[in-house]
Specification:
The protein is mainly beta. It contains four helices and 21 strands. It has a seven-stranded mixed beta sheet with strand order 5-6-3-2-1-4-7, with no helix packed on it. A six-stranded mixed beta sheet has the order 11-10-9-8-20-21. The protein has a six-stranded mixed beta sheet with strand order 12-13-14-17-19-18, with no helix packed on it. A hairpin with a 2-residue loop joins strand 5 and strand 6. Helix 1 packs parallel to helix 2. The protein is elongated and about 85 Å long.
């Protein structure tokens, strides 16, 4: 990680990530612009972009850049060490998006099981009376619109096994309201999604099926990765061989599985995270219908729980959503009762 204090009187090794706080045109005709950049600790230093290098870079205040082939300058004057950066003829600048002082907020749910009422009675929980999964899904949308989150993330089983056409239409209408409110809907597939309901979901504008190719939430630094449900014996060993986007990111993995240590018979999540080519900051999973959380291999992991009382485990199944707030690289997860 780049630090102003680490600048040496030489070409810097590797890329550095900086944020731009000022761009000025000096009176010195040998310098095109002077760009004031800050490191991750908000310590500033000036970068001279020399006219002779004939660089055409669009510098924008408030945005982050990855810089390659930058030269450092260090000198002493009156007993004080001074530092400065300088362009080179092969300076390269990649725009990484806005500086992230503002929070990115996600509403994360799972196991909404819209269409649950169409199950045969023997396949419902004994306390099915009063369960309305369609209304619960619509309540999630109301909370998202009312709280101004940046995205809704669904950890699988949007639908139950055989939703009625009215159930699918209700979800499409609710997602249309999210789209009209400028809130994208990211999802993975759980073990209950049918081919028909999946096709309808994929056809909704503003809905994004997460994969191991990261999806960035708007212009934030949050990258979402997703893996659809797999039978435990078929869970791909290379599922986490993904590539994180450049820059300082918060990487969130969305899955729908039973993992150890939450259940002793589950897939070994710690081993998978060790093999991962991406360093995740948060793992969110559906599938268990109860809200639980632990730290696994240094990574916070939480199960979303279901959005209605369809768990067979009793009092621990109170409906819950998660609000994930990201500020810089700090991640905070809180519960939102439904």
């Amino acid at each position: 990680m780049f630090s102003v204090d680490g600048i040496r009187d030489a070409r810097l090794d590797g890329p550095i990530e900086v944020s731009i706080s000022d761009v000025s045109v000096p009176s010195n005709s040998k310098v095109d612009v002077v760009v004031t950049v800050a490191d991750s600790d908000d310590v500033s230093v000036e970068l001279d972009v020399w006219t002779t290098h004939e660089l055409r870079i669009d510098w924008t205040v408030g945005r982050r850049y990855e810089l390659r082939n930058v030269r450092g300058k260090v000198w002493h004057r009156d007993g004080t060490r001074h530092r400065r950066l300088s362009s080179t003829s092969d300076l390269d600048a990649t725009d990484l998006g806005p500086h992230h002082d503002e929070q990115c907020r996600l509403l994360i749910v799972g196991d909404t099981h819209v269409g649950y009422h169409a199950r045969p009675p023997e396949n419902r929980v004994s306390a099915h009376r009063g369960v309305d999964c369609r209304a619960s899904f619509e309540r999630v949308v109301e909370i998202a619109l009312g709280s101004g989150v940046d995205a809704v993330v669904h950890a699988g089983d949007v639908f139950d096994d055989q939703p009625l056409s009215a159930d699918v239409a209700a979800v499409e209408t609710a997602l249309g309201r999210l789209r009209a409110g400028g809130i994208p809907f990211y999802y993975i597939l759980g073990n209950h999604e049918s081919t028909t309901s999946t096709r309808r979901l994929e056809a909704v504008d503003g809905s994004v099926h997460l994969t191991t190719v990261p999806s960035t939430v708007g212009e934030s630094n949050v990258a979402l990765f997703g893996i659809d449900y797999h039978r435990p014996s078929a869970f791909p060993s290379d599922a986490f061989d993904a590539t994180a986007p450049p820059g300082e990111r918060v990487n969130v993995l969305v899955v729908h599985q039973t993992f150890a240590p939450f259940r002793s018979s589950g897939i070994d999540l710690a081993a998978i995270l060790r093999r991962s080519t991406v360093e995740f900051d948060l793992v969110v999973s559906g599938h268990l219908h109860v809200a639980e959380e632990r730290t696994v291999g240094g990574v916070p992991v939480c199960y979303t729980g279901a959005t209605d009382r369809i768990s067979r485990i009793g009092s621990s199944s109170d409906p819950l959503a998660r609000i994930v707030s990201v500020a810089g690289t700090d991640v905070d997860v809180s519960g939102q009762p439904l």
